């Protein structure tokens, strides 16, 4: 397993070298404006700092006042953090008015739809409620659609770029994170539709598909705590059907998977490339797990893909199914 991991890391390093060569062909970024959602932490926060250092004018959407204050204190005056809740159309409209007034007739060079949450993870199909699905969809998909539709007039003015953060989970379904997976399949579909529809307007759409990366959203302590809360609200019948061993196995999988989470700089590199390269890629599959396991498995016939998934990420059997084939 260690040898395979080392080879994957080596191949990923080679890809980064190729990407750096491609990065030498850039559009002129001076005076360009970019809006990024979800900048309190994670990919969005790192990208906002990166673009600020490159001299772009950045509007960094933050859910919390603490996120706004942190970026305002640590970045240049070019970066303007703004309160932005992507699940609130009123908040999105407020942000639109601020950006529209600032860019005027120049329009918006880039929109990075990065805001996202993981939701319930580590359980199984029956554990997530409709409210769990709604909470994740409101941020990851419906919020993205609302932001994109709202800012499209500014993107059309400059023949700008939309960068949507999907996931490798949007290419291969994972029953242990169903609300998140469903939302990211939706992001993939929306992005593909948007790319084809906006071609005549000169607006380009690029998709980022990360594997497992180390951010606040993937913090295993938070995921484990959320899993315990999900388990506690199950009925006595469901708890008996699945059993404590199933719950513990799910926790062990989360802890084990966290060991392979990657540093997020590669995602920020891909976002920067999508915003700045003369010839960006339509899709950026980032991370050794996404590039060499998840996405290739998604290309296989369904039954074969299911078999590979069971070998790579075996689904534990509930207590009531022990002994069955």
From TrEMBL:
SUPFAM superfamilies: NAD(P)-binding Rossmann-fold domains
Single GO molecular function: oxidoreductase activity
Leader sequence residues: none
The keyword Oxidoreductase is assigned to this record: yes
Keyword Oxidoreductase: yes
Keyword terms of this UniProt record: Oxidoreductase
Source domain of life: Eukaryota
Gene Ontology biological process terms from the UniProt entry: steroid metabolic process
UniProt family annotation: Belongs to the short-chain dehydrogenases/reductases (SDR) family.
Protein name (database record): Retinol dehydrogenase 7-like
Organism for this UniProt entry: Branchiostoma floridae
